[in-house]
């Protein structure tokens, strides 16, 4: 509790302090790794998890080709284990929308119909937990890199950041939707409890915007980063209450996508590409900093690549580095097509960013490729 109070105190001070100039951070590439994939592995490009264990460092991902979770040894760059999931029978997993490993032999899967399912590493189902909401339809749950399951002991937090009637809603309806749920997996009759936290009405003061967000956690706090809002939400795991919303603006995020009505043809894709927005928010436990990624809007006519391919892999990606109190340490803009969106994670050696962007000339679907990068001013173990 003392740690939580200290965190609230620090961020309250920062929220009242004047903005400082955003420093352009330089980075160095410590190492590059290349992990071969055999013909049975087709990675789902939105769900990756770093694992730090006594036996080494690993990367887990969802394999769409054979309905499995694959685990790779990062030190040796080799495949280490496959957790095969079943499509039929008593251990049926349903349609998997992401996962999270949270112990030495526990795999929690987001499934459709809307359930959380717990498996051991042999693919045997040990528990399942329906996710319902008496006030709003729960039509989709997931645990991807953008909204992974978060844990507090045996309590799990999940998110559904969607609206049911987006085009018929007004700003006054925003508060009617709760997007975050918690579930006690040790309860006799576990039920999802929806936290009373919604998008603020002023989110739409300039017009309607997509409600999606990404999140991460730090100790006893959850931090939410909306796609189309500079503010980061801070939520207490213990009380389930909103503690603060702090503006953390990237210098190149200036124009969000305002949706004026149902798009015609591919116009919505083009408008989205022309706009800026935020992407993943990651916490670096080894250096006690946050990384807030963002997309920079482009003119689709400036690229030879078709705009649908640009939409799948945004070409201009930036990154804010924040201290533990969400104060900006610096900013970095990656080169065009330098890294692959969504595919980054934090490890002991540094920040891993995928360099296997499909729009790069050297793209190779037979490998996972990462640069391990380090930023000036941060302290590393070696």
Quickly list its features.
four-stranded antiparallel beta sheet, DUF4221, mainly beta, disordered N terminus, 40% strand, Quino_amine_DH_bsu, 8% helix, TolB-like 6-blade propeller-like, 24 strands, 382 residues
Dominant shape:
globular
Question: What profile does the largest beta sheet have?
Answer: 4 strands, antiparallel
Residue share in helix: under 10%
The number of strands is: 24
> How much of the sequence is in beta strands?
35-45%
Gyration radius (Cα, Å) is 20 Å
The first-to-last residue Cα distance is: 33 Å
How many helices in DSSP terms? 3
Uncertain segments are 1-21
N-to-C order of helices and strands: HEEEEEEEEEEEEEEEEEHEEHEEEEE
Walk across the major sheet and give the strand order: 1-24-23-22
Mean pLDDT equals 91
The helix-and-strand class reads: mainly beta
Question: What does the secondary structure layout of this molecule look like, with pairings?
Answer:
Elements lengths: L1 H15 L10 E10 L6 E11 L2 E8 L4 E6 L4 E7 L10 E9 L2 E7 L2 E5 L5 E6 L19 E3 L2 E5 L20 E5 L8 E2 L18 E6 L2 E6 L4 E6 L5 E6 L19 H8 L2 E8 L4 E7 L11 H6 L4 E6 L5 E6 L10 E3 L4 E4 L12 E9 L7
């Amino acid at each position: 509790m003392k740690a939580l109070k200290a965190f609230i105190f620090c961020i309250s001070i920062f929220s009242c302090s004047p903005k400082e100039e955003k420093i352009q951070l330089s980075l160095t590439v410590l190492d590059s790794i290349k992990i071969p994939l055999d013909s049975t592995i087709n990675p789902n490009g939105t769900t990756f998890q770093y694992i730090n264990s006594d036996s080494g460092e690993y990367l887990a991902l969802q394999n769409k080709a054979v309905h499995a979770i694959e685990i790779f040894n990062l030190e040796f760059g080799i495949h280490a284990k496959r957790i095969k999931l079943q499509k039929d029978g008593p251990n049926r997993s349903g349609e998997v929308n992401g996962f999270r490993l949270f112990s030495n032999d526990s795999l929690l899967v987001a499934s459709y119909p809307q359930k959380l399912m717990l498996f051991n590493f042999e693919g045997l189902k040990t528990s399942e937990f329906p996710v319902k909401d008496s006030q709003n339809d729960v039509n989709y749950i997931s645990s991807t890199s953008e909204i992974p399951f978060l844990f507090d002991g045996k309590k799990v937090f999940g998110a559904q950041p969607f609206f049911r009637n987006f085009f018929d809603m007004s700003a006054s309806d925003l508060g009617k939707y709760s997007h975050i749920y918690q579930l006690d997996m040790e309860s006799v009759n576990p039920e999802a409890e929806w936290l009373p936290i919604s998008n603020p009405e002023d989110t739409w003061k300039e017009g309607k915007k997509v409600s999606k967000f990404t999140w991460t956690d730090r100790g006893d706090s959850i931090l939410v980063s909306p796609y189309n809002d500079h503010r980061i939400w801070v939520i207490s795991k213990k009380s389930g209450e909103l503690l603060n919303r702090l503006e953390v603006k990237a210098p190149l995020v200036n124009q969000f996508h305002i949706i004026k009505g149902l798009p015609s043809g591919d116009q919505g894709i083009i408008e989205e590409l022309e706009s800026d927005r935020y992407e993943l928010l990651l916490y670096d436990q080894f250096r006690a900093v946050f990384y807030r990624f963002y997309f920079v809007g482009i003119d689709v006519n400036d690229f030879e690549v078709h705009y649908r391919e640009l939409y799948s892999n945004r070409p201009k990606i930036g990154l804010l580095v924040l201290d533990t109190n969400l104060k900006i340490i610096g900013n970095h803009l990656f080169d065009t097509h330098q890294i692959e969106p969504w595919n980054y994670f934090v490890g002991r050696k540094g920040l891993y960013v995928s360099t296997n962007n499909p729009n790069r000339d050297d793209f190779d679907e037979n490998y996972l490729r990462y640069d391990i990068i380090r930023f000036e001013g941060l302290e590393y173990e070696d």
